[in-house]
Amino acid sequence: MPTYTAVQKSAIQQFAAVADVKDSAAAKTLKAHNWNLDHALNAYYNSNKSNKFGSNGGSTAQSLEKLFNHYRDIDKSEETDVIGVEGCMQYFADLGVDLEEPVVLVILTEFNAPTMGEVPRQGFVEYWKRSGVSARQKGNRANTFHVKYITDHLRVVGGG
Q1: Between the CA atoms of 111, 113, 119 and 125, what dihedral angle is there, to the nearest 10 degrees?
Q2: Residue 4 has pLDDT above 90, yes or no
Q3: DSSP type of residue 139
Q4: Tens digits of per-residue pLDDT, 21-33?
Q5: How many other CB atoms are found less than 10 A from the CB of residue 92?
Q6: DSSP 58-112
Q7: Structure confidence at residue 126 (pLDDT)
Q8: Is 160 exposed, middle or buried (0-12, 13-18, 19+ CB in 10 A)?
Q9: Distance (Å) of CA 159 to CA 53, 105, 128, 152, 153
Q10: Rounded CA separation 15/43 (Å)
Q11: pTM recorded for the entire structure
Q12: Residue that wins the pLDDT comparison between 30 and 130
């Protein structure tokens, strides 16, 4: 078993969760792309488009559920339909969003979160379906474009 750094282990877990592959396949793909998660995922899905995403987009809901479960499981809670505080913190960290940024509130609002640090399954899945971003782009830096757009918009509107 190869030895991986903490950053590499995290990338392997994220890749495996998003692409629904074994850790060994995730590691192989990541290594081939110099451990760049975005490039590895793009390459994986571009080479597996026909297998992963049919014209009906059927795997999208399944991928979203898997992604939700990945962050929900971080909390080790008995609650099955909520990502808790620890999962939310990891989700935003994976997106590269500082928890003190106003965009956190916007994203939580989009998820119909009843309180800070609590994301309901339905809100998470429905947001991603509405967003128009394909399921293959979900995950770690999944909605980087959306976060950047919202953050830039808030800075312009708020003068920050």
Answers
A1: -30
A2: yes
A3: S
A4: 889 989 999 999 9
A5: 20
A6: HHHHHHHHHHHHHHHGGGT-S-SSEE-HHHHHHHHHHHT--TTSTHHHHHHHHTT
A7: 84
A8: exposed
A9: 41, 17, 28, 10, 10
A10: 12
A11: 0.52
A12: 30
Q: Give the SS3 label for residue 127.
A: helix
Q: Residue 60 above 90 pLDDT?
A: no
Residues 6+ apart with CB under 8 A from 140: 11, 14, 18, 37, 38, 94, 95
Q: Classify each residue of 98-124 as buried b or exposed e, where b means 16 or more C-beta atoms within 10 Å of its C-beta.
A: eeebebbebbbebbebeeebbbbbebb
Question: CA 48 to CA 92: how far, in whole Å?
Answer: 28
Smallest CA-to-CA distance from 134 within 74, 21, 46 is with: 46
Checking if the pLDDT of 62 tops 60, the result is yes
Alpha-carbon distances, residue 33 vs 53, 54, 135 (angstroms): 22, 25, 21
